[in-house]
Structures are given as C-alpha cells and as structure tokens.
Amino acid sequence: MYDMTTTQDLRTQIAEPNLTRILLADTRLAPLWTVLRIWLGWQWLHAGWGKITNPAGVWVGEKAGVAIEGFLKGALGKTAGEHPDVSGWYASFIQNVALPNAELLSYMVAFGEVLIGVALILGIFTGIAAFFGGLMNANFLFAGTLSTNPIMLIAAFAVVLGWRVAGQYGLDRVVLPYLGVPGAPGTLFRHDARLPQTPIPPAA
C-alpha cells in the first residue's frame, strides 16, 4: 500500500538516528528503563510519604507550611554575594508567589511527590510524571539545594526522552494504546476504528 503522506513526511522531518532509536524506542531495552523508572519513583514516593506522615504535621496537617516556609526563607538567605546560590529572579518568585502561598505549596509538594512516585513505579503516564518530577528537582536546585536533586533531574530527563519504552513493563503498555498520545489518538477517540477501511490503491 502507498501512503500519500510518506513523501511529504520525508521532506519535512529529520530521520531518527539508529542510536537514539535503539536507546529511546527499542523495547529490548525496556528492562533497563524499568529499573531506572522504578528507582526514580521510589525516591519520590519515599520523600513524599515522609512529608505526609511527618508526626509534627509541618507539611500536611495543623502546621502545614511551616517546613516549606523555613526552606524558602533559607533559600532567600543564599542570594547574597558575588556568586549567589539563588538567583535574583527566583528570589523574587519566592517572595511574591511561594511564601504567600506556603501552606498550599506544602500540600502540593507533599502529595505531588507521592503521585509522581506512584505513577513512575506503576509505569503510568511515565513521561508526564518524570517531567513534573524533573520540574520539582529544578525548583529545588534554583532554591540552592543540591542533595540528590542533580542525579534525579538527570534521571527524569532520561525517562522523559525514553518515555516510549520506559513504561513498557507498566500500565502505559495498556493505557497509551487506549488513550493515545498527541498526534496519534488511541482507540478510545478513534470513533471510526470499527468501520471497514477502504484500502489505498498502490501508486501508478
């Protein structure tokens, strides 16, 4: 069969190199991606669950916002000097957005970390979960905190790139064909999927 879009696609798209196709789209490497994905998910789940179950309730509970307020004020203290750990634009974000909403942000961080961890461990919406995990790592780094954030950010970046196979041994294997991805709707949204298809005649 001849696909009328093939010629146009070749004119407007750059072919994917074999190396990146093997690393990022070959299901034979799915076990390696699964290990990385679950490790990253466990890091987030462990961190988030610790915040939710904190006995002092400084993340979730009566004193919600206390912990993150202390963290943010500590970040503001790193804005001095010729080479500050926290940039001026991020300090402005902390003062004008984060600190006034510290309690809400506290809940968002705690439950967000748990949700990211669960999604990565189960392998559902893997690329989206890794993206938001990396976004949180980036914010911690902008606030002048290293810890494991650089390693987790690199791992999240890798999982985002390898999302096509990172969830192969997870729920993505079932969910994505059903829901689809941008530009390729799944069976749920293809209302004509059950209709007989008219074959495209071969090129003359």
From TrEMBL:
Keywords of this entry: Membrane, Transmembrane, Transmembrane helix
Topology versus the membrane: Multi-pass membrane protein
UniProt subcellular location: Membrane
Origin: domain of life: Bacteria
Keyword flag Lyase: no
UniProt key word Membrane: yes
Predominant place of localization: membrane
Parts of the chain that traverse the membrane: 114-134, 140-163
Protein name, as recorded: DoxX family protein
InterPro entries per the UniProt record, alphabetical: DoxX (IPR032808)
